[in-house]
Amino acid sequence: MAKKRGDVNGKEVYLVDAVRTPFLKSTSENPPFSASDLAVQAGRSLLLRNPSLPKADFDEVILGCVTPTPEEVNIARVVSIRIGFGKKIPAFTVQRNCASGMQALDSARINISSGRSRLVLAGGAEAMSLAPVLVNSRMTTWLGRFAKAKGLHKISQIFKLRPGHFTPVIGLLKGLTDHTVGLNMGHTAEIIAHRFNILRDEMDTFAMESHQKVANAHDEGHLREIVPVIDDKGNAYTADNGVRRDSNLKALAKLKPVFDKPFGSVTAGNSAQITDGSAMAILADEELVKERGLKPLARLIDIRWAGVEPSQMGLGPVNAIYSLLMSNKLKTSDIDYWEINEAFAGQVLAVLKAFTDPDYVKEEFALKKPFDPIPPDRLNVDGGAVALGHPVGASGARIVIKLANTLRDRCGRYGVASLCIGGGQGGAVLIEKVEE
C-alpha cells in the first residue's frame, strides 16, 4: 500500500482526541439530559484533558443532530456558547439522518483539508427521549379556526372538539419512517433480511453477542472513550445502561416481531435500542499537531457517501465501503478492524452477505467478482448499537471514535467505520492509526 492516502492536494487531518458520554436508555419520564446537555458535558471533558488547546484557538464547532428541541435551534451554536467558546467562534449544525455525527466529522475534515480551519470541535448528539409529541392535522385545523373565532364563536368551536382531535402524533415514529416509500426503518430491515435469507436465529445470535461484547468491553476497560455525565440532581452516569449482561437466545426467541407481524424476524431484541448520547472529537491539521506536540489517535484519510434504494437503506454501507476502498486502492485484507453500526442485527448480516454476493456487486458496481469477506473477529469487536443503542445524531461519530481506540488497543493500522442512513444512503470512513 502507498504510504499516504486520501486528499493528495489537501492538508492532512488528524483526530487528536475524542470522547463520548454513556449511552442512556430513552425515557419519557423526566429525561435527565437534553442533546445539548450531553454535548456540553462531553465537550467540556474533552477540552479539560487537552489543556494545550485553549478554546480561543478553535476555529469552529460543528455538531450533528437530527431532532434538537426548539430551545436548541442550531444546536452547535448553543453548545459552543455553553461550553464557553465565546461569541467570536462560529458554529453550525449538520443533519444527515443516522450519519449526522459522521457528517460533522466530514465537514470538519473538509474545512481543515482546504485550509479554512486548523482546529475544530466536531461530533454529534441526540436526546431521543425528547422527540416531540405532535398534534394531528384535525387538531391543527381546529386550533386555526379557534384562533380566528371571536366572541361567542369561540365557545361554539369548543363544542366541535371530538376525541379524534386528541390523538397524538408520535414524532419519533414519524422520524423513523421513510415517507418517500412509506416504510419504517424496521420494515426496510425485514426486506433486506428476506433478500439475503437472514434467519431469525442468526439475528438473535448476533444480538446476544453484541451484548456480551459490550459487557466484556466494560469489564476489561476497552471503552475508555466514555466520560461520565452528571444531571442537575447530582446523579452521575458512568456506563451505558442498556446493556443486558444476561442476554440469551431463549429469551430473545420469545420476543415477537415488531414491524412485520406475525411472520417477520426483526424484534426489539435484535434491533438497536432508542437512546440518548453524545460523541465529540477534536480535529486538527498536521502543522498544529506538530506545533503543539500532540499525539493524535488517528489520521482521517477519507470519507465517502453513497445512495441506495430507500427501501433497501440498510445496504448503504456496502456501497459506501465500495467507494472508499476503490478510491484508496484497498482490499478487504488491507483493513485491520471494522465498525458497522448495528441499526438492526439483520441489517448488518445482510451487509456482510451483500459484500460477498456476486450478483449484488455485479449489479451495483459492475464487478466481476465480489469482495473478500469481512472477518467476523475484526468487526465490532467491542459490540455495537444493538447493545449500546443508536442515538441517531451521535452514532456516526461514536463508531469512528471507537474504531480509533480499537486500532490503538489492538495494534491495527487501517480501519473502516460505516453505517446505513435513513432515506437510502451509506457513509464510510477510512482512518489510520498514528504511531505513538
Protein architecture, described:
This protein is of the alpha+beta class. The chain has a domain at 178-221 and 301-430: 3-Layer(aba) Sandwich (Peroxisomal Thiolase, Chain A, domain 1). The protein contains 15 helices and 16 strands. The strands form four sheets. Strands 1, 2, 3, 4, 5, 12, 13, 14, 15 and 16 form a ten-stranded mixed beta sheet that branches. A two-stranded antiparallel ribbon has the order 6-7. Strands 8-9 form a two-stranded antiparallel ribbon. The two termini are 21 Å apart. The relative contact order is 0.20. The mean pLDDT is 92.
Task: Offer a few descriptive terms.
single chain, 436 residues, alpha+beta, Peroxisomal Thiolase, Chain A, domain 1, 10-stranded mixed beta sheet, two-stranded antiparallel sheet, globular
Kindly summarize this structure in a few lines.
The chain has 436 residues and is α+β, with helices and mostly antiparallel strands. Helix content is 36%, strand content 19%.
- What is the CATH H-level superfamily of the domain at 178-221 and 301-430? Thiolase/Chalcone synthase
* Biggest sheet architecture: 10 strands, mixed
Question: DSSP helix count?
Answer: 15
Which runs of at least 5 residues are low in confidence (pLDDT < 50)?
none
CATH class label of the domain at 178-221 and 301-430: Alpha Beta
* Average pLDDT reading: 92
Rg to the nearest angstrom? 22 Å
CATH architecture of the domain at 178-221 and 301-430: 3-Layer(aba) Sandwich
Structural class: alpha+beta
Report how far the terminal alpha carbons are from each other: 21 Å
The tally of strands reads 16
Q: CATH topology of the domain at 178-221 and 301-430, which one?
A: Peroxisomal Thiolase, Chain A, domain 1
Q: What share of the residues does DSSP label as strand, in percent?
A: 15-25%
